Amino acid sequence: RAHHGEPEGWLYIAHRKDGRWISGLEGDREFADHVARSPLVGKAERQNMTAYAQRKATPQQVAPSVGTTAANTNGLLLPWMPDYYMTLTGGAHSHTGSTGYWSSLDFAGGNASGRVRSSREGTATSMCGAGGGWTRVIHPGGFSTDYYHMFNTTYYNGTSIGRSALLGTIGTDTCAGGAATGAHVHWSLRTYDANYNGQYTWLNGRTIGGWAWWNGSGQYTGCATRSGVTACPGT
C-alpha cells in the first residue's frame, strides 16, 4: 500500500476443542467467548476489553468544536517521557492517511532521543511479531493506542506494561504496509465496540498529554492547544 500509515491489524484467539481449532477474530462471537474464558488473556486485559464492550464504547459521531469541554481520555500521555518532547510533524489524520476517523498524529525529533513510550499502562502486543515496527497497547478505561513505523522495538506478546514503558524508537518500518517519509512514529487512538471489534476513533476535541487536539481544514494540518499556547505541525 502506498498511503502513509495504513496497516490493518486484529487480535485473534484460538481454542482447541474435540481435535479442532476454533478461532475467534475481533468482532466475532467466538472472540468474545475466548476473551471471557481463555487463560491466554490476562486478568487486566480481560477486564479492559470487557469494560469496552459493556460500555458500548463506539466513536462519537459528532465531535466537539473548539471552545467546548475537551473529551476525557483517562490520562493518556503523548508517546514520550514526561518533561521531554517531540515535534508534531503531522496533525490529526486518518490511520490510512486517506479515509476514516482522523485518529492519528505523527511525531519526530525533539529531545526524547527518538524513544517511543506507551501513553499509559496496559497490555502490549507486537502486531508484526518480533522485530516489527508496530505495537498496540490496550489501556484501562476505554482506549487503546497504536505506534507504527518504529525500529529497535521491544517484543511484547500480551504483556502487561507500565505507563511510559519503552516500545521502540522512531523509524520508517512498514511491516504491515503503508509508507513513511523520514523517521517518525505514527500514533493512533482506538476503542472497541460492544462486539469487541477494534476501531480507530476521532481525536478532535480530546485531550492527550495535556493538549487538546483539533482537526484542521485538511488531514495533517490540525493543531493542539494548552493554556493559551497553540502547537501546529512543525512545532
Could you explain how this protein is built, in words?
The strands form 4 sheets. Strands 3, 4, 6, 7, 8, 9, 11 and 12 form an 8-stranded antiparallel β-sheet that branches. A 4-stranded antiparallel β-sheet has the order 13-14-15-16, with no helix packed on it. Strands 1-2 form a two-stranded antiparallel ribbon. The chain is built from 2 helices and 16 strands. It starts with 11 loop residues before the first strand and ends with a strand. The chain has a single domain (1-235), classed as Glucose Permease (Domain IIA) (Distorted Sandwich), CATH 2.70.70. The protein is mainly β and 235 residues long. InterPro entries: Dup_hybrid_motif. This is M23 family peptidase.
Itemize the secondary structure elements and their pairings.
Layout: E1 12-17, E2 20-25, H1 29-37, H2 43-55, E3 87-94, E4 102-108, E5 115-117, E6 122-126, E7 135-138, E8 144-148, E9 157-161, E10 166-169, E11 185-192, E12 198-200, E13 207-208, E14 211-214, E15 223-226, E16 229-231
Antiparallel strand pairs: 1-2, 3-4, 4-11, 5-10, 6-7, 6-9, 7-8, 8-11, 11-12, 13-14, 14-15, 15-16
